[in-house]
């Protein structure tokens, strides 16, 4: 099931004295437990490792003393040896002779020194920053999470998977700093799941910068191509006392993360309901096994509305299908402003299903339906039917076989996957998802009614203007992106 764990690693070659050749011996339970405890994709998946080695990433270790953190840290140091640093409050208590002398009165100072060391590493753009503390409570993690956000680091929370990580007696025996049993028991009582605000697929800083530049370039191109689009957005810009060039910008967001992401599952603030959401979502074993893994995808187009500038995403990787937790059929919010109302579009419709059958153009370069077998139980558990699979690239209505519709935003599974590249003032980034579903419905209605649409076609793009400040840019050559699946913690 997991492409970074090959069956061969479950076996060992042993020589046989009775016959020539090689026999295969199954590893015993203890060896399997050890292998499982080290099966994080950022330790075992070569594709993930290669990507993270050139990505600014903060590994936030989390676990009780003796749970196996040091083993994981040592492996991380070997894998990401070209550019790494280990920040640990324990280092403050190690003297010049390498002797550990703990002083409870200095624990606050030790953590301040550790936090400053982490910030200095962020300023130096060190690729792998390893925070080697217990990080039991959120308030212990928050200073590092904030620094990661400020400096454009992807955060991967790393917890040991050892079978004794919650056993106080074993932890007391195994920890190297002689932490007493009562202290370990007290820390265990404080240990709760670290609930993220959302799970997402994160681009690194370099790719985020490139995608944002592409989005703004296509936005400017659309303004020049469609004079009415520019007039529509200039009218809104004047109302907001901002230039049309700055109308849809990341700088208008209340929170301005340095890196782009696609939300896979929104959890929300730490409430009973959000904790239940987290528990139910995390019950999918693929969620924990895919944390920290690379998930390649594509940007297939951009959407422009009076409120948001979004990048339309495609993920052919079935790992993403299995962890997708967003509602693709969520209705867009009704717009209260008169300049965004469209008489030709019923914004209150809750039906986001396709209105007619489609089939793929055989010349399509990208699709998620290649080799898809609806009789396969594993596939069926992730995607309910072929109609739920996201079809992209050139899609042709069956009754208009000669006409290519370029219906990139289309209904179905993962159809809402997007990046927020910019928003208008006072608009939430969450609006991009609503606008994406609105544009899908709007485009489908225009095609279904055979409504003439202003269009531009050049070597790189096909652009369509739908009126009232709405435009879609379709890319003839999708932009490949590499994302990392992990959580975002507020």
From TrEMBL:
The keyword NAD does not apply. Pfam families: AAA_33, CNPase. Keywords: Hydrolase, Lipoprotein, Membrane, Methylation, Phosphoprotein, Prenylation, RNA-binding. Its main location: other. SUPFAM superfamilies: LigT-like, P-loop containing nucleoside triphosphate hydrolases. Signal peptide: none annotated. It comes from the Eukaryota. One of its GO terms (molecular function) is 2',3'-cyclic-nucleotide 3'-phosphodiesterase activity. Residues 338-352 have a biased composition (Low complexity). GO terms for biological process: cyclic nucleotide catabolic process. Residues 196-335, 415-489 form the Cyclic nucleotide phosphodiesterase catalytic domain. Its EC number is 3.1.4.37. It is a lipid-anchor. The keyword Membrane applies. Residues 325-379 are annotated as: Disordered. It is found in: Melanosome; Membrane. InterPro entries: CNPase, CNPase_cat, Cyclic_Pdiesterase, P-loop_NTPase. Catalyzes the formation of 2'-nucleotide products from 2',3'-cyclic substrates. May participate in RNA metabolism in the myelinating cell, CNP is the third most abundant protein in central nervous system myelin. Exists as monomers and homodimers. Belongs to the 2H phosphoesterase superfamily. CNPase family. This is 2',3'-cyclic-nucleotide 3'-phosphodiesterase.
């Amino acid at each position: 099931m997991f492409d970074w764990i090959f069956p061969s690693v479950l076996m060992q070659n042993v020589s046989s004295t009775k016959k020539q050749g090689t026999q295969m011996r199954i590893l015993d339970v203890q060896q399997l437990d050890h292998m499982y405890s080290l099966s994080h994709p950022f330790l075992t998946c070569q594709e993930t490792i290669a990507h993270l080695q050139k990505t600014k990433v903060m590994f936030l270790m989390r676990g009780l003393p003796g749970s196996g953190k040091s083993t994981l840290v040592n492996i991380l140091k070997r894998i990401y040896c070209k550019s790494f640093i280990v920040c640990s409050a324990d280092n403050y208590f190690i003297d010049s002779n390498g002797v550990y002398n703990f002083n409870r009165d200095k624990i606050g100072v030790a953590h301040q020194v550790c936090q400053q060391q982490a910030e200095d590493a962020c300023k130096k753009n060190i690729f792998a920053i390893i925070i080697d503390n217990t990080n039991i409570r959120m308030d212990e993690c928050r200073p590092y999470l904030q620094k990661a956000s400020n400096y454009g680091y992807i955060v991967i929370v790393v917890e040991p998977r050892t079978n004794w990580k919650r056993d106080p007696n074993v932890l007391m025996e195994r920890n190297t700093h002689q932490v007493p049993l009562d202290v370990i028991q007290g820390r265990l009582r404080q240990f709760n799941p670290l609930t993220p605000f959302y799970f997402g697929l994160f681009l690194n800083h370099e790719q985020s910068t490139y995608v944002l530049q592409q989005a703004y370039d296509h936005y400017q191109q659309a303004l020049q191509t469609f004079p009415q689009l520019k007039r529509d957005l200039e009218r809104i810009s004047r109302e907001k006392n901002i230039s049309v060039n700055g109308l849809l910008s990341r700088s208008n967001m209340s929170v301005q993360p340095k890196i782009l992401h696609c939300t896979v599952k929104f959890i929300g603030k730490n409430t009973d309901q959000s904790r239940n959401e987290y528990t139910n979502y995390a019950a999918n074993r693929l969620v924990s096994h895919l944390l920290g893994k690379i998930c390649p995808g594509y940007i297939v187009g951009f959407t422009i509305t009076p409120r948001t500038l979004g990048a339309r995403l495609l993920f052919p990787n079935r790992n993403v299908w299995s962890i997708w937790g967003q509602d693709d059929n969520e209705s867009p919010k009704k717009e209260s402003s008169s300049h965004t109302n469209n008489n030709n579009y019923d914004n209150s419709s809750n039906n986001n299903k396709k209105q007619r059958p489609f089939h793929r153009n055989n010349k399509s370069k990208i699709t998620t339906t290649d080799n898809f077998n609806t009789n396969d139980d594993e596939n069926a558990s992730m995607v309910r039917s072929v109609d739920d699979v996201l079809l992209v690239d050139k899609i042709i209505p069956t009754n208009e076989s000669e006409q290519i519709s370029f219906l990139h935003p289309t209904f179905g599974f993962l159809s809402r996957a997007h990046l927020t590249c910019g928003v208008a003032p006072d608009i939430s980034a969450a609006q991009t998802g609503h606008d994406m579903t609105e544009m899908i419905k709007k485009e489908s209605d225009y095609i279904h009614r055979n409504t003439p649409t202003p269009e531009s076609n050049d070597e790189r793009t096909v652009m369509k203007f739908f009126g009232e400040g709405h435009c879609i840019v379709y890319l003839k050559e999708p932009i490949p992106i590499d994302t990392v699946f992990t959580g975002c913690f507020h």
